[in-house]
Write a structure and sequence with these properties.
The chain is an alpha+beta fold. The protein is 42% helix and 18% strand.
Protein backbone atom coordinates (compact mmCIF):
# COMPACT_ATOMS: atom_id res chain seq x y z
CA UNK A 1 0.00 0.00 0.00
CA UNK A 2 1.14 3.52 -0.81
CA UNK A 3 2.57 5.12 2.37
CA UNK A 4 0.87 8.48 1.77
CA UNK A 5 -2.51 6.76 1.26
CA UNK A 6 -2.03 4.86 4.51
CA UNK A 7 -1.17 8.14 6.26
CA UNK A 8 -4.34 9.80 4.95
CA UNK A 9 -6.42 6.78 5.94
CA UNK A 10 -5.01 7.02 9.47
CA UNK A 11 -6.28 10.60 9.79
CA UNK A 12 -9.69 9.67 8.35
CA UNK A 13 -9.91 6.68 10.70
CA UNK A 14 -9.31 8.91 13.71
CA UNK A 15 -12.24 11.15 12.66
CA UNK A 16 -14.43 8.12 11.92
CA UNK A 17 -13.70 6.64 15.34
CA UNK A 18 -14.77 9.81 17.14
CA UNK A 19 -17.94 10.26 15.05
CA UNK A 20 -19.13 6.67 15.56
CA UNK A 21 -18.33 6.43 19.31
CA UNK A 22 -16.26 3.30 18.63
CA UNK A 23 -14.25 2.08 21.61
CA UNK A 24 -10.87 0.43 21.20
CA UNK A 25 -10.56 -2.96 22.87
CA UNK A 26 -6.79 -2.49 23.06
CA UNK A 27 -5.53 0.13 20.63
CA UNK A 28 -2.67 -1.18 18.53
CA UNK A 29 -3.01 -4.72 19.91
CA UNK A 30 -6.54 -5.85 19.05
CA UNK A 31 -8.25 -6.08 15.67
CA UNK A 32 -11.68 -5.16 17.08
CA UNK A 33 -13.43 -1.96 18.02
CA UNK A 34 -16.89 -1.98 19.57
CA UNK A 35 -19.90 0.18 20.35
CA UNK A 36 -22.76 -0.63 22.71
CA UNK A 37 -26.20 -0.05 21.17
CA UNK A 38 -29.73 -1.33 20.77
CA UNK A 39 -30.21 -3.94 18.05
CA UNK A 40 -32.52 -2.80 15.23
CA UNK A 41 -32.57 -5.71 12.77
CA UNK A 42 -34.66 -8.85 12.38
CA UNK A 43 -34.72 -11.39 15.26
CA UNK A 44 -31.60 -13.60 15.28
CA UNK A 45 -31.28 -17.16 16.58
CA UNK A 46 -27.71 -17.99 17.58
CA UNK A 47 -25.99 -21.36 17.12
CA UNK A 48 -26.66 -22.16 20.80
CA UNK A 49 -30.38 -21.30 20.44
CA UNK A 50 -30.40 -17.90 22.13
CA UNK A 51 -32.42 -15.02 20.69
CA UNK A 52 -31.27 -11.52 19.86
CA UNK A 53 -34.37 -9.39 19.32
CA UNK A 54 -34.99 -5.79 18.21
CA UNK A 55 -34.40 -3.50 21.18
CA UNK A 56 -31.91 -5.84 22.89
CA UNK A 57 -28.65 -4.34 24.02
CA UNK A 58 -25.78 -5.68 21.90
CA UNK A 59 -22.11 -5.11 21.30
CA UNK A 60 -21.65 -3.99 17.68
CA UNK A 61 -18.38 -5.50 16.51
CA UNK A 62 -16.12 -3.74 13.98
CA UNK A 63 -12.89 -5.02 12.48
CA UNK A 64 -10.39 -2.16 12.75
CA UNK A 65 -9.63 -1.97 9.02
CA UNK A 66 -6.94 0.69 9.29
CA UNK A 67 -5.06 -1.27 11.96
CA UNK A 68 -5.29 -4.42 9.83
CA UNK A 69 -4.05 -2.46 6.78
CA UNK A 70 -0.95 -1.42 8.72
CA UNK A 71 -0.34 -5.08 9.60
CA UNK A 72 -0.69 -6.06 5.92
CA UNK A 73 1.77 -3.49 4.63
CA UNK A 74 4.22 -5.31 2.37
CA UNK A 75 2.21 -8.57 2.26
CA UNK A 76 1.86 -9.60 -1.38
CA UNK A 77 0.47 -13.14 -1.05
CA UNK A 78 -3.29 -13.68 -0.63
CA UNK A 79 -2.91 -16.82 1.50
CA UNK A 80 -0.60 -14.97 3.90
CA UNK A 81 -3.19 -12.19 4.12
CA UNK A 82 -5.97 -14.63 5.06
CA UNK A 83 -3.76 -16.41 7.61
CA UNK A 84 -2.74 -13.06 9.10
CA UNK A 85 -6.38 -12.03 9.52
CA UNK A 86 -7.31 -15.38 11.08
CA UNK A 87 -4.41 -15.23 13.52
CA UNK A 88 -5.31 -11.73 14.67
CA UNK A 89 -8.99 -12.60 15.09
CA UNK A 90 -8.08 -15.67 17.16
CA UNK A 91 -5.70 -13.62 19.31
CA UNK A 92 -8.23 -10.80 19.69
CA UNK A 93 -11.32 -12.82 20.73
CA UNK A 94 -10.23 -13.68 24.32
CA UNK A 95 -9.06 -10.09 24.90
CA UNK A 96 -12.35 -8.82 23.48
CA UNK A 97 -14.27 -11.04 25.89
CA UNK A 98 -12.23 -9.88 28.90
CA UNK A 99 -12.82 -6.27 27.87
CA UNK A 100 -16.58 -6.76 27.46
CA UNK A 101 -16.95 -8.44 30.85
CA UNK A 102 -15.77 -5.18 32.46
CA UNK A 103 -18.42 -3.05 30.75
CA UNK A 104 -20.83 -1.36 33.13
CA UNK A 105 -23.91 -2.75 31.32
CA UNK A 106 -22.48 -6.17 30.48
CA UNK A 107 -25.29 -7.97 32.37
CA UNK A 108 -27.83 -6.47 29.93
CA UNK A 109 -25.94 -7.44 26.75
CA UNK A 110 -27.49 -10.28 24.71
CA UNK A 111 -24.66 -10.86 22.24
CA UNK A 112 -22.18 -9.49 19.73
CA UNK A 113 -23.17 -8.57 16.17
CA UNK A 114 -21.08 -7.48 13.19
CA UNK A 115 -21.53 -6.89 9.46
CA UNK A 116 -18.85 -8.10 7.07
CA UNK A 117 -17.95 -9.58 3.70
CA UNK A 118 -15.27 -11.71 5.44
CA UNK A 119 -17.74 -14.28 6.72
CA UNK A 120 -16.40 -17.50 5.21
CA UNK A 121 -15.13 -19.81 7.94
CA UNK A 122 -16.46 -17.84 10.91
CA UNK A 123 -18.89 -20.56 12.06
CA UNK A 124 -16.15 -22.72 13.66
CA UNK A 125 -15.31 -19.65 15.75
CA UNK A 126 -18.83 -19.66 17.23
CA UNK A 127 -20.53 -17.13 14.96
CA UNK A 128 -23.83 -17.58 13.17
CA UNK A 129 -24.47 -15.93 9.78
CA UNK A 130 -27.54 -14.31 8.22
CA UNK A 131 -28.35 -12.01 5.30
CA UNK A 132 -28.79 -8.28 5.71
CA UNK A 133 -31.50 -6.22 3.97
CA UNK A 134 -30.02 -4.31 1.04
CA UNK A 135 -31.29 -0.90 2.11
CA UNK A 136 -29.31 2.32 1.53
CA UNK A 137 -27.23 1.86 4.70
CA UNK A 138 -26.05 -1.66 3.86
CA UNK A 139 -25.47 -0.73 0.22
CA UNK A 140 -23.18 2.06 1.42
CA UNK A 141 -21.45 -0.29 3.85
CA UNK A 142 -20.89 -2.88 1.12
CA UNK A 143 -19.36 -0.18 -1.11
CA UNK A 144 -17.14 1.00 1.74
CA UNK A 145 -15.94 -2.54 2.60
CA UNK A 146 -15.18 -3.27 -1.05
CA UNK A 147 -13.12 -0.09 -1.13
CA UNK A 148 -11.24 -1.29 1.97
CA UNK A 149 -10.59 -4.65 0.29
CA UNK A 150 -9.23 -2.90 -2.80
CA UNK A 151 -6.82 -0.98 -0.61
CA UNK A 152 -5.74 -3.86 1.65
CA UNK A 153 -5.70 -6.81 -0.74
CA UNK A 154 -2.47 -7.35 -2.71
CA UNK A 155 -4.51 -7.96 -5.89
CA UNK A 156 -6.76 -4.96 -5.12
CA UNK A 157 -9.07 -3.92 -7.94
CA UNK A 158 -8.86 -7.21 -9.89
CA UNK A 159 -9.82 -9.22 -6.80
CA UNK A 160 -12.92 -7.11 -6.14
CA UNK A 161 -13.99 -7.30 -9.81
CA UNK A 162 -13.61 -11.10 -9.91
CA UNK A 163 -15.52 -11.65 -6.69
CA UNK A 164 -18.20 -9.01 -7.07
CA UNK A 165 -21.04 -11.53 -7.04
CA UNK A 166 -19.39 -13.76 -4.42
CA UNK A 167 -18.93 -11.03 -1.83
CA UNK A 168 -22.35 -10.57 -0.21
CA UNK A 169 -22.57 -8.55 2.94
CA UNK A 170 -23.59 -10.75 5.89
CA UNK A 171 -24.48 -10.30 9.52
CA UNK A 172 -22.34 -12.38 11.88
CA UNK A 173 -23.40 -12.78 15.50
CA UNK A 174 -22.88 -14.74 18.69
CA UNK A 175 -24.70 -14.97 22.00
CA UNK A 176 -23.04 -13.69 25.15
CA UNK A 177 -23.19 -17.23 26.54
CA UNK A 178 -21.35 -18.68 23.53
CA UNK A 179 -18.74 -15.93 23.70
CA UNK A 180 -18.02 -16.66 27.37
CA UNK A 181 -17.99 -20.42 26.78
CA UNK A 182 -15.46 -20.18 23.97
CA UNK A 183 -13.33 -17.20 24.92
CA UNK A 184 -13.88 -16.36 28.60
CA UNK A 185 -11.40 -17.29 31.31
CA UNK A 186 -11.14 -21.08 31.51
CA UNK A 187 -13.06 -21.34 28.24
CA UNK A 188 -13.37 -24.27 25.87
CA UNK A 189 -11.03 -23.20 23.07
CA UNK A 190 -12.20 -23.50 19.43
CA UNK A 191 -10.05 -25.24 16.86
CA UNK A 192 -9.43 -22.09 14.83
CA UNK A 193 -10.19 -23.95 11.59
CA UNK A 194 -11.80 -22.07 8.75
CA UNK A 195 -11.83 -18.33 8.06
Amino acid sequence: MNASLLWLWGHWDSIYQRCTRLQYVDKGNNIFRIVLLRYRGEPLVTSDEHMICPGDLIVKLHIHNYYFATLCKGVKDELRLVLLLRRHIMQSMPKLTAYLEKLERWEEVKGIVGTTMLHKGVEPLGFSISDVPMNWFFRYKRWYLRLMLRIIHPDGKDRVQRLKQDMPLKRVYMSKEQLLYRYGSGAHQPTGEGL
